[in-house]
Amino acid sequence: MNGAEALMHTARTAGIDVCFANPGTTEMPLVAALDSVPGLRGILGLFEGVCTGAADGYGRMTDRPAMTLLHLGPGFANGIANLHNARRARSPIVNLVGDHTRSHVEFDAPLTSDIVSLARPVSGWVRSNRAADDLAVDFAAAARAALGPPRQVATLIIPADCQWGKADGPAEIRRNAAAPVDTARILAASDELRRAEHPALLLGGTALREPGLRAAARVAAATGARLLSETFPARLERGTGLPRVERLPYFPEQAIEFLASIDAIVLAGAREPVAFFGYPDTASRLAPATAAIASVAERGEDVAVALENLANALDAPPTAPPGADAVLPGAPAAGPLEPQALGALLARSQPAGAIVVDEGATTSLPYTLAADAAPPHTVLGLTGGAIGQALPVAVGAAVACPDRKVIALQADGGGLYTLQALWTLAREGLDVTVLICSNRRYRILQIELARAGIAEPGPNAQSLTDLSRPDIDWAGLGSSLGVPSRRVESVAELARELAPAIAAPGPRLIEMVV
Amino acid sequence: MNGAEALMHTARTAGIDVCFANPGTTEMPLVAALDSVPGLRGILGLFEGVCTGAADGYGRMTDRPAMTLLHLGPGFANGIANLHNARRARSPIVNLVGDHTRSHVEFDAPLTSDIVSLARPVSGWVRSNRAADDLAVDFAAAARAALGPPRQVATLIIPADCQWGKADGPAEIRRNAAAPVDTARILAASDELRRAEHPALLLGGTALREPGLRAAARVAAATGARLLSETFPARLERGTGLPRVERLPYFPEQAIEFLASIDAIVLAGAREPVAFFGYPDTASRLAPATAAIASVAERGEDVAVALENLANALDAPPTAPPGADAVLPGAPAAGPLEPQALGALLARSQPAGAIVVDEGATTSLPYTLAADAAPPHTVLGLTGGAIGQALPVAVGAAVACPDRKVIALQADGGGLYTLQALWTLAREGLDVTVLICSNRRYRILQIELARAGIAEPGPNAQSLTDLSRPDIDWAGLGSSLGVPSRRVESVAELARELAPAIAAPGPRLIEMVV
């Protein structure tokens, strides 16, 4: 058994069975080793950002790490943007990165690079393997770090000769013990909620799944607290029958106004709310300076348990599911394809249990509001703000949950970073409906220019925020990468195409010219 | 004048006039400032690797830096692979990377990232600007570092508030003095050449341009030295009338055999030859252990001058241009489209003065051999081995040299990493013929699997090295991104399509199914 085989056997015994890969020469023994043990599935991405984003989506849906397999520094670097999102989502991932043989590094061959320097900013755990015999143990440590608690991105760098060198056999993966929930923090939070006149619970991370939401709803009912969520949730369960949360607005002025009346915030899996970007004359902190801030759980603790303990500490009775006051907005039958109409149509069309990967950017807000009344579904958000996430994350979510429909709501600007994911959807026959919001501009940047007081952008500023000249044919891109694709330019066309696309098994793409 | 405007004025006074950009919110004042001074051209890439590769191509052809404009850590990270190639090509580039406002960093907002850690591995020079008033001076230092000598990649990180903050005005860009050529080194090299029975000159960097080549040819004629070039030259001038060089083979066994009889190597702008990757039982050093090694110039010295001094030290007379012994191979009129036929057809079709960006991978060797007898042309090679270079570098070469035809010979696997470059070709109307070598596999990895003794790859190894299922429609991708595109599947079809595509002004794409 060589080092690579010992690693793959170790992975299997830990229940890790998927590897999103874009390998090169220094990873060949690892590629071969995928076939050395039954039950490992290698999935090819044509660009590394597809692999890392897919691992993120897989991790958010299963709480188990997928492996990625990436090539040296430059290959790994292509995966950094979506690892950045995964880090913010606290997704478990084990990156395997090949490196030159140990004796070859000193020669500074063309592909030699400082992989550790590249890996650190997006990895909670990094190790450079140094011997074939250590490889199984190093992998076990990487998997343990990824699985947590706390869950995180772990990166293991493996010289090629340690992959092919002789090894003893697989290693055992131990697990971290969960940190117990801190009772003193729970009591302090319950005191703040009792004391406040206008309290709020800000939910993030796993607090936005059903157990956390139900416990939070009890707390809200008992204290009058508003239920808020992070702007870009890693994974939010929502829809009919689930407690509703208000999403924190994106722009800081709006968020500050949204939070203005609050005098206490209890954080549950979320951090103190801060602006996405700094602006002149606008605070970075969004909550009122006078608001008390408490947290029920720190990183690594089970936030859903903490919320239940908080509800119990408050003697909060069970709550009934929310009533039928949320109704799906009516969708127009005709007219131009504006975000409002698009959002209503999608909310009315999505099946129960859908996983909606939301990177619709400036197009998706109306959809988000409409889908409160949609059947229960899961939303995966743009946690780290690095665009080009939705298509890869959809790949991973579909691999993780083959019985659920995945809908990728993808703005055209962001979609262009990782469009190679479409090919993986086709190859693997994944059940994903891709909806491209094609407004043919970086609309958010045009808004930012206006916010910066640049009323009439000059020719360079216009050119750099505009995706037309020429228009991009997304339906053609989808077809060329193997996904059956259509373009729609009106409400009537979308109404006609959307239901059949969602009903069809396997990948479909609709380019929505908005 | 704000900091961003002071920076752009400084750039203009230094003759920097192109900015390959993919900006985000933290770069908006820099985007606006591109319109604050006449003569700056912002060129949009839809993915950061397009911008950095374009800056590399521009730098190789002009010896002047283009700017790139990139967004925080994840955006910069998307540009790293082609910056890696640029670093190996010693291209001058100034990266401008926006960052959060100085006061916003501590809040660890979603896009906060360790940009310095990401930038260092690909940047010879990195600085984090700290004040609007320093921005022009910091930019001047970045430009000086990029311009060299030695030329290099320089990365300047700029907080958003320093971009919009008040600044005094532009700064002056000083230049490094060229290091004088070291006479002792020249004399030592000439001694080695005189002493050796089978000497060779290994040329790299700027030694592969016409002055260096002509001086090297004098040395070769006087000493009997073979003229060799690096495997992946940054920029090689070749074709009829230019001294011919032998290209060092890629695989180490072949390279070792190629160098076996040599007893002295004089390096000129190149480093000691080492294998691209380490393999079991194969040395990393390619030259015989007994061969003497000398170098005529170190980094930062003018290698063409050094070669002329060497020729003079050897009393080498001027040489006549090489005779007509190199003849273009005949091209078949029909048959399957194999690399041999493709290479002959291309070598016969390329116009004088063409710039050939070569990332044909396993397809391009026959072309390389055939083009010795083509009209004078420039070859830009895959210096760092990070695939996905040719299309972006073609963008930059075409912007740099609007009067020359650019031909991008791009393998399909590598092309998929940065296919977004096709759209920039279309938007800017660049005179580039894109030739996709579509063998629908990672052929090099299949070769590496075989070299590793894996005669019958398992299903995962097969799947991860195969680009079919589904086949990718490159002609469709090109058309969808705005480039008139065709697919050819035989010699006859390529013979019919190639000349008109090259003759047409502006971008064209031919997918060659090989």
List keywords for this structure.
homodimer, 514 residues, alpha/beta, Rossmann fold, 6-stranded parallel sheet, 37% helix
Commentary on this structure:
The structure is a homodimer of 514-residue chains. The first copy, chain A, has 514 residues and is of the alpha/beta class. Chain A folds into three domains: 3-164, Thiamin diphosphate (ThDP)-binding fold, Pyr/PP domains (Rossmann fold, 3-Layer(aba) Sandwich); 183-313, Rossmann fold (3-Layer(aba) Sandwich), CATH 3.40.50; 339-513, Thiamin diphosphate (ThDP)-binding fold, Pyr/PP domains (Rossmann fold). In chain A, 37% of the residues lie in helices and 17% in strands. Chain A contains 21 helices and 18 strands. The first copy, chain A, has helices at 3-13, 28-33, 48-62, 72-78, 80-89, 115-119, 135-147, 160-164, 183-195, 210-223, 252-258, 303-313, 339-349, 365-370, 390-400, 412-415, 421-428, 443-451, 459-463, 474-480, 491-503; strands at residues 18-21, 41-44, 66-71, 93-99, 125-128, 153-159, 199-203, 226-229, 236-238, 246-247, 264-268, 292-295, 355-359, 377-380, 406-411, 432-438, 485-488, 508-513. In chain A, the strands form three sheets. A seven-stranded mixed β-sheet of chain A has the order 9-14-13-15-16-18-17, sandwiched between helices. In chain A, strands 2-1-3-4-6-5 form a six-stranded parallel β-sheet, sandwiched between helices. In chain A, strand 5 (125-128), helix 7 (135-147) and strand 6 (153-159) form a beta-alpha-beta unit. In chain A, helix 13 packs parallel to helix 21. Chain A is globular, with a radius of gyration of 24 Å. Chain A starts with a helix and ends with a strand. The model of chain A has no long low-confidence stretch (mean pLDDT 96).
